[in-house]
Specification:
It is a single chain. This protein has 2 domains: 5-150, Nucleotidyltransferase, domain 5 (2-Layer Sandwich), CATH 3.30.420; 200-387, 2-Layer Sandwich (Nucleotidyltransferase, domain 5). Helices cover 37% and strands 19% of the residues. The two termini are 15 Å apart. The chain has 407 residues and is an alpha/beta fold. The structure holds adenosine monophosphate (AMP). Pathway: Metabolic intermediate biosynthesis; acetyl-CoA biosynthesis; acetyl-CoA from acetate: step 1/2. Substrate binds at residue 94. Pfam families: Acetate_kinase. Its main location: cytoplasm.
Length: 407
């Protein structure tokens, strides 16, 4: 029997998201989420996606990632999809920061673990959780290939002119300060899927990808290759996000230290957790913000306007970086669902060949689709992202026997 299943794990600091896929037809067999690990109120939600089983939820204290993964393994086993099955080919792990050197998905060994650990100072929130997930999974199935798929990998093709900050070069190199970019798995998947939607090969299209979720980033993709992206050393730079400020003058930080008497840690929390939409208007959910805008609330209107203004600046910047743009594509929670955001982001850009068709744009759908009018020079597309499928595909491509790689 050929092993064709891949378990995808996305381990956060207090959560584990997972999906089990069968790569013989890219179908999903099960999906789930463990939340609030380490608290009394931990919760596991498991949804079998084959065989017609009902979703199951358990609330029970789950002390750590090891217990969480064991609980996940139990749930999968109940559906006859146990992780001890010979049909499981590999486990694919999302790893947020792969630095400059991990340009590809990589089979995990001790050297890889060490390097991911070495990157903790530049990804203090994410890499430790990712490592815990990997180590726990390795202990459960030591015989199985475990693959790291890095959020940064797609962006390692950025030219130095885009990847470097204009700061003292020796200091930058000493501390590995450069623009790494994140959400790469999503940008890779969505840019490729957009080319397909246009009926073209990725090599033949230039795309601006707008990944607008609670975290948000833009990227400029020329012929399938990322040439710029809005997140930097960390996922704080760039667009206005749910709770993150995106771009600010770095002098804001010195000012807050000197005049506001704040510590570096306090400013870190301010810019990462208490800024962006939530800092501007008290809400980070775009649905709620739009409801408030429609009721004429000024605070919500300002937050929305700042969000859109920043988005437009990046569209303009990446238009200039690419020179020729074939499509602008919206993805993730806000990008896939918020017609007002898409409409406002391209409003007034007709001279750049950009427009949305009001009717097409307002249709709700889970399908990849084009929402620009026939006459527009640049396609405006909405493409639901699928990071789990991308991770599973990249993982399987690395571990499957050659005859199965294009399954
Ligand atoms: P993500 O990080 O991709 O899961 O996106 C989460 C965000 O998507 C939420 O915080 C909301 O702001 C936004 N979102 C989800 N559904 C909708 C919707 N129907 N309309 C507008 N925004 C939405």
């Amino acid at each position: 029997m050929t092993a064709t299943r891949v378990l995808v794990l996305n381990s956060g600091s207090s959560s584990v998201k997972y999906q089990l896929l069968d790569m013989s037809d890219s179908s999903r067999l099960a999906a789930g989420l463990v939340e609030r690990i380490g608290e009394e109120t931990s919760r596991l939600k498991h949804t079998p996606l084959t065989g017609g089983g009902e979703a199951r939820e358990r609330e029970q204290p789950i002390a750590d990632h090891e217990e969480a993964l064991k609980a996940v393994a139990d749930e999968l086993a109940r559906d006859g999809l146990g992780i001890d099955s010979p049909e499981l080919a590999a486990i694919g792990h999302r790893v947020v920061h792969g630095g400059k050197f991990f340009t590809e998905p990589t089979v995990i060994d001790d050297a890889v673990l060490k390097e991911v650990e070495r990157l903790i100072p530049v990804a203090p929130l994410h890499n430790p959780a990712n490592l815990t997930g990997i180590r726990t999974a390795m202990a459960l199935r030591p015989d199985l290939p475990q693959v790291a798929v890095f959020d940064t990998a797609f962006h390692t093709t950025m030219p130095e002119s885009a990847a470097r900050y204009a700061i003292d070069i020796k200091t930058a190199d000493e501390h590995r300060i450069r623009r790494y970019g994140f959400h790469g798995t999503s940008h890779a998947y969505v840019s490729r899927r957009t080319a397909q939607l246009l009926g073209k090969e990725p090599e033949d299209v230039n795309v601006i990808v707008l990944h607008l979720g609670n975290g948000a980033s833009a990227s400029a993709v020329r012929g399938g290759i990322c040439v710029d992206t809005s997140m930097g050393l960390t996922p704080l730079e760039g667009l206005v996000m749910g709770t993150r400020s995106g771009d600010v003058d770095p002098a804001v930080i010195f000012h807050l230290m000197r005049v506001g008497n704040m510590t570096a840690d306090e400013i870190d929390v301010l810019l990462n957790k208490k800024s962006g939409l939530i800092g501007l208007c008290g809400d980070n959910d775009m649905r709620e913000i739009r409801r408030r805008v429609d009721e004429g609330e000024q605070e919500a209107r300002l937050a929305f306007d700042i969000y859109i203004h920043r988005l437009k600046k990046y569209i303009g910047a990446y238009y200039a970086v690419l020179g020729r743009v074939d499509a602008i594509v919206f993805t993730a929670g806000v990008g896939e669902n918020s017609a007002p955001v898409r409409e406002a982001a391209v409003a007034g850009l007709e001279e750049l060949g950009l427009a949305v068709d009001g009717e097409l744009n307002s249709v709700r759908s889970d399908e990849a689709r084009i929402v620009s009018p026939e006459y527009a020079r640049v396609a405006v597309a909405v493409v639901p992202t699928d990071e789990e499928l991308e991770i599973a595909q990249q993982t399987y491509a690395l571990v499957a026997p050659p005859e199965n790689r294009n399954a």
